[in-house]
Amino acid sequence: MLIRRPADIRPSEITPADVYAQRRRFLAGALALAGSTLLAPAARAGTPTGTVLAARRNAAYSVTEAPNSWDDVTGYNNYYEFGTDKSDPAANAGHLRVTPWTVTVGGECDLKGRFALEDLIRPHPLEERIYRLRCVEAWSMVVPWVGFPLGDLVRRLKPTSRAKFVQFTTLNDPAQMPGERSRTLDWPYTEALRIDEAAHPLALLAVGLYGRVLPNQNGAPLRLVVPWKYGFKSSKAIVRIDFTERMPETTWARANPTEYGFYANVNPAVDHPRWSQKTERRIGAGVFAPRQGTLPFNGYAEQVASLYTGLDLRKNF
Ligand code: MTE
Fold this sequence. Notes:
Elements: H1 17-33, H2 40-43, E1 56-57, H3 70-75, H4 88-92, E2 102-107, E3 113-116, H5 117-121, E4 127-134, E5 139-149, H6 150-157, E6 165-170, E7 190-194, H7 195-198, E8 204-209, E9 212-213, E10 223-225, E11 238-244, H8 251-255, E12 279-282, E13 292-293, H9 301-304
Parallel strand pairs: 1-4, 2-11, 5-12
Antiparallel strand pairs: 2-3, 4-5, 5-8, 6-7, 6-11, 8-9, 8-10, 12-13
Bound molecules: ligand MTE.
Ligand MTE binds next to loops.
């Protein structure tokens, strides 16, 4: 069982980001003294940087596994707008201008318009939630996000009765995003959720991680986190939110419809056509760590499986 109720969590178990980092540094020092090379991932752990965000831990929506190090979370990324190597986003995203930032809201909703990011975020108290992130490439991490429920924003935007889906669009600016100068993907990057998925309390809009403002490589200033789906559903640097009646096309499904579907629910029973989804490699676990079994809906089945009652998940992958 991955999700614990608040009553199960003692305050002493809640570890602030700085303390994680201190422990990691201590561990790294101890390992260096021991002359270990096999445990190099712990030695790479750095100190979280960036503006501190005031956010309370939401234990009811947090897993109890240890989060990955700051260096893992901010140094091993997928963000094709900045290159296709895992280290490219950290190397190339630093110059992206994330202030001022606006988000345009359109389609089937009452509150359409172009909003300053602060105005979209301000009414929502920020919380920290530790979620598992499972990439379709069969690796995983545990990330302490800071954000607010997407469903709260969706309700504020007042979708019409015709709205069935919500689409998210990433910034399209080849001058700032070097990856967009080549056709690796059909830019801009878009993703979408069914509206009931978007309203599920686990769907999060993240503005930070490790108690700090979101680093550019992780999708600053606003990114989606849908923990029961493969990581590619988590659009970064969101500039548009559109409510639609029809199921929108999404970037990866457009690029390769036999490999990537609309739903992208983590499912060990449905392999990617080129590799198994039964197990995953935990980033930072070390070269000799065994692969772990992948859980249906990434371990969130109890919370989200009912969203898909009656849907054939083999066809709707
Ligand atoms: N968003 C945009 N705009 N561009 C991307 O290439 N990659 C996705 C997703 N969001 C991607 C994106 C994929 S494949 C994954 S696994 C996650 O971001 C990775 O998020 P992380 O780098 O914060 O771990």
